[in-house]
Amino acid sequence: MHILAQARNLSKTYPTGRGPLQALSQVDLRIYEGETLALVGESGCGKTTLGRLLLGLLPPTDGQVLFDGVDLATLPPKALRALRRQMQPVFQDAAAALNPRRTVAQLLGEPLRIHKLCRREELPQQGAALLEEVGLSPALLSRYPHELSGGQRQRVGLARALALRPRLLVCDEPVSALDVSVQAQMLNLLAQLQTTHGLTYLLISHDLGVVRHSADRVCVMFLGRLCELGPREALFTRPRHPYTQLLLESIPRPDPRQRRETPLPAGEIPSPLSPPSGCRFRTRCPYAQPLCAQEVPALGEVDGRQVACHFPLGHGD
Asked: Rg for the chain (alpha carbons), in Å?
């Protein structure tokens, strides 16, 4: 399979008044063309930071970001700007992402105008085609963002991302702000567009139901590090990292009488300002042993997936 985007030993550290904050630490990740790769984990685990690094919106502290084999850090500004046509973001809060002083026509025409992809007189026609592609009426071209519903704004944001015909979309919580019924429509639209245009998705989400519905592979993160990476169904049915098991056990049960297989761990999530030695999950892990505090577990092959754990669950069963 062709690797479209890749992170190599990627780290991102922010200086703070209390010391360096490690948002990402030595992340290795491949995104294959045509797939949907989901990033999951608790708030603050580095999902959005990783997405922004892959888009070239943030410079890495260490490591490399490659798109189609090209290291983004080696590109001059003009070449990087041209390459960005091939990778676009879809934001969680469409109301904040859309300029309230511009009409839908202006919002959709701006990327086309900046990259000189069509003549000025063709912009209304291109805008109408983009709206129809995401299931909206061209009559909305004259509207402002505040005149649209939440679902309509999110579709306009998606249409704007599609205007440049990208190959990669980084979707950061694209449906979390929508009603459940509208969420399903949006997810079906994303699947349809992926088939039509051969798009590749990086889906950042905390909603495991959305992930199970949409993803081909799932990457689990905790405190800036990758814990487990593998096919969706294998990960949901047979988790091998204790943190993955914790996330799955945290899903609300429809029957309150149904007992959990594993008790939820107590204690606070460690601070990225002072992460634990060795495995960063060890302070909450019910299976931690002395080795977990001494050595950082490397991603290794376990049952057809990658797991960063000294003692993977069910290994050898």
From this structure: 21
φ and ψ at residue 112, rounded to 5 degrees: -65, -40
SS3 state of residue 295? coil
CA-based nearest residue to 222, from 14, 30, 51, 40 = 40
Mean pLDDT along residues 94-102 = 92
| Amino acid type, 176 | S
What does the alpha-carbon distance between residue 317 and residue 303 come to, in Å, rounded to a whole number?
10
In angstroms, the CA 13 to CA 11 distance is 7
Give the C-alpha separation, 76 to 112, whole Å. 22
Asked whether the beta carbons of 146 and 178 are under 8 A apart, the reply is no
Q: Retrieve residue 4's tokens.
A: 């479209």
Give the span between the Cα atoms of 57 and 300, in whole angstroms. 30
Residues 6+ positions from 257 with CB-CB distance below 8 Å: none
245-295 confidence digits (pLDDT tens): 989 888 777 766 666 666 666 667 888 888 999 999 999 888 899 999 999
